[in-house]
């Protein structure tokens, strides 16, 4: 059972700078079967001297450097560890410099010269010092380096780093050339005294120089070699910035690079068979083999993972059950308007999601499309708010499991309005050969409503709010228009010397952005009577009334289809009631309605025009669905100011009815 050394042990060759240095082993004992793990720690002896990179060091220090300035010195290396490693530095006695020994994060030592008394080049041009490195052995081992200091004239400004310490984290598998950090220093001097060169500090270990490269012009520190977390977890890199003056100014900074572990080591499994072959009658629980698993990685990278196969037991889950999307009309076709987001906690194909637009409404498939892989909803055509305001659809999210699981998400798309429709004038009708002339009686007072401009805007909301302004008029001071009503009023009382014919141009503007507008032209006559109306009416062929043809075909259809006398009589009764109700409504509307929107000629309520003798006026009433007309004519009145003499005359023609009413001084308003 004795454990013997089979060859000479060199701790530095086995473990390098790692401490403690140990060799592990396992011992199997049979009868009874037991496994023992053991380790042999290799202890260090002081068998190595400290070593400086070179036997001499040369420094150039300006005489203007103030007391307290620090100058890093090259560090000695000692492969021993613990107390036997490099422990301290000593400096030969001198009147200007002291030695400051500091410890790095890993416990190694480095030295810096500290100027205690300012230099004077005229008094002493150079200094010679001796730096001694000592380890902690008994007796201690040492190494020496000669330091030659040249005292030169000053460079006024030394470089200054924007920060004294830089930090970075790099994965151990980072490829060569990857940027670690970019250090930056500035120098207020001009010319060569302000040009900065970056370099490693003199006490930077050789291992660090092998792993990292520094660009002397840009200050970029990049990975040069292969980092290994298992070897070193943190690098402390000392860099300096030096200008190009005759006496270079120097600044120093430190870069801490943390190495992040990656799973770059496979587990190692050791199987020790101690019971082979296994008898067929071996009892349950019999030990067959011993297994030992190790992994050099750290934390989670060093655990042993047992994989659990996935079952499609989770349906896709959307971040929202429904989406409300608002899209401006007149959009560009093909734009994405929504990304339906869903997740599935399953793995592999069970988590592979596909998106489908369910065709509930057949028009939806022609207007919208969805990307089956990422759920992006696209708008294929340009939408029109005036055509359709809202679209509703259902998006199905399905995984790739067997059987697949699915979730439905509702999507509502609302088309918001743009001001893309100018106001449309209904009265007076634009682009028509018929001339609409409104009549106002002479002497009408201020505020008398003459007519009204009627317009609509196909847009919605504020975009459809129409305002009316008087753009142009024969007499701008005679008429005014309501800003929001479109009603045209007399601005003052009409006088005898006023022009008899007036043309008004009304500007109609909506309140959208940008503002859209249109115009309407209104003709107004100042008159007491209308010229020969009957002649004008006979010259104008009335347009066919579509309702007359519809009524005819309805009656014809009822006659052909109806087989029973009762149905025929009922249809005739309904038709008669409809005619009576229409004539009653027409009569009531002629008395109560101040204004109605005129349509084509067969919808005209009143036609006025022309002048005869001052004591006559004609008023013609046309019904909307027949050739019957009522004509009111006033005979010459007596000297009575009220014109009380009135008479009535009915023309024998069935198409006209003349009624003589009113007085010469009373003219009907356009609404009448």
From TrEMBL:
Keyword vocabulary terms for this entry: Calcium, Cell adhesion, Cell membrane, Glycoprotein, Membrane, Repeat, Signal, Transmembrane, Transmembrane helix
Subcellular location: Cell membrane
Pfam family, one: Cadherin_2
One Gene Ontology cellular component annotation held by this UniProt entry: plasma membrane
InterPro entries found in the cross-reference section: Cadherin-like_dom, Cadherin-like_sf, Cadherin_C, Cadherin_CS, Cadherin_N, Protocadherin/Cadherin-CA
Residue span(s) of domain Cadherin: 53-161, 162-269, 319-425, 432-544
MF (Gene Ontology): calcium ion binding
GO biological process, alphabetically ordered: homophilic cell adhesion via plasma membrane adhesion molecules
Keyword Methyltransferase found: no
Topology in the lipid bilayer: Single-pass type I membrane protein
Membrane-traversing stretches: 552-575
Stretch forming the signal peptide: none
Main location group: membrane
Protein name: PCDGK protein
């Amino acid at each position: 059972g004795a454990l013997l050394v089979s060859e000479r042990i060199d701790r530095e060759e086995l473990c390098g700078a790692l401490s403690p240095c140990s060799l592990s082993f396992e011992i199997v004992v049979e009868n009874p079967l037991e496994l023992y793990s053991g380790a042999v720690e290799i202890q260090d002896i002081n068998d190595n001297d400290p070593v400086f990179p070179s036997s001499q060091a040369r420094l150039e220090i300006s005489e203007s450097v103030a007391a307290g300035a620090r100058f890093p010195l090259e560090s000695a290396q000692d492969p021993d560890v613990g107390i036997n490693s490099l422990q301290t530095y000593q400096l030969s006695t001198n009147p200007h410099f002291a030695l400051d020994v500091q410890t790095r994060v890993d416990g190694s030592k480095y030295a810096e010269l500290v100027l205690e008394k300012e230099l004077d080049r005229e008094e002493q041009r150079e200094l010679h010092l001796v730096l001694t490195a000592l380890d902690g052995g008994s007796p201690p081992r040492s190494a020496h380096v000669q330091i030659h200091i040249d005292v030169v004239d000053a460079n006024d400004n030394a470089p200054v780093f924007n920060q004294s310490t830089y930090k970075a984290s790099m994965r151990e598998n980072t490829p060569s050339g990857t940027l670690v950090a970019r250090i930056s220093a500035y120098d207020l001097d001009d010319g060569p005294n302000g040009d900065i060169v970056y370099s490693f500090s003199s006490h930077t270990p050789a291992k660090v120089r092998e792993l990292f490269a520094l660009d002397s012009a840009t200050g970029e520190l990049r990975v040069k070699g292969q980092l290994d977390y298992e070897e070193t977890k943190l690098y402390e890199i000392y860099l300096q910035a030096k200008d190009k003056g005759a006496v270079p100014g120097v600044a120093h900074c430190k870069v801490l690079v943390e190495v992040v572990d990656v799973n770059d080591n496979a587990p190692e499994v050791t199987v020790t068979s101690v019971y082979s072959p296994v008898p067929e009658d071996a009892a349950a629980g019999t030990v067959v083999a011993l297994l030992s698993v190790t992994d050099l990685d750290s934390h989670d990278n060093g655990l042993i993972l047992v994989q659990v196969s996935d079952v499609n037991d989770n349906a896709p889950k959307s971040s929202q059950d429904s989406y409300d999307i608002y899209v401006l009309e007149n959009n560009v076709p093909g734009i994405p308007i929504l990304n339906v987001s869903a997740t599935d906690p399953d793995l592999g194909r069970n988590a592979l999601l596909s998106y489908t637009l369910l065709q509930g409404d057949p028009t939806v498939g022609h207007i919208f499309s969805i990307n089956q892989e990422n759920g992006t909803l696209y708008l294929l055509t340009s939408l029109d708010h005036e055509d359709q305001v809202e679209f509703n659809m259902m998006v199905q999210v399905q995984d790739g499991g067997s059987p697949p699981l699915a979730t439905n998400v509702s999507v509502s798309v609302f088309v918001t309005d743009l001001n893309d429709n100018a106001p449309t004038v209904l009265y007076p009708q634009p682009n028509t050969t018929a001339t609409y002339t409104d009549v106002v009686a002479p002497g009408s007072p201020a505020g008398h409503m003459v007519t009204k401009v009627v317009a609509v805007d196909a847009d919605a909301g504020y975009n459809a709010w129409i305002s009316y302004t008087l753009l142009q008029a024969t007499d701008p001071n005679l008429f005014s228009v309501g800003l929001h009503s479109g009603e045209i009023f007399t601005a003052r009382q009409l006088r005898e010397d006023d022009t008899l014919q007036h043309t008004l141009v009304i500007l109609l503007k909506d309140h959208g952005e940008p503002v859209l507008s249109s115009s309407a032209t209104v003709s107004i006559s100042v008159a007491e009577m209308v010229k020969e109306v009957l002649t004008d009416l006979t010259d104008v062929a009335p347009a066919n009334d579509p309702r007359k043809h519809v009524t005819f075909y309805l009656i014809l259809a009822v006659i052909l289809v109806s087989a029973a006398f009762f149905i025929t009589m009922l249809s005739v009764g309904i038709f008669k009631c409809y005619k009576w109700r229409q004539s009653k409504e027409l009569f009531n509307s002629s008395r109560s309605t101040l204004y109605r929107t005129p349509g084509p000629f067969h919808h005209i309520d009143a036609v006025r025009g022309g002048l005869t003798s001052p004591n006559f006026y004609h008023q013609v009433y046309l019904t909307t669905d027949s050739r019957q007309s009522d004509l009111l004519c006033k005979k010459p009145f007596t000297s009575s100011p009220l014109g009380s003499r009135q008479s009535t005359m009915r023309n024998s023609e069935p198409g006209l009815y003349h009624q003589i009413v009113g007085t010469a001084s009373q003219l009907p308003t356009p609404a009448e």
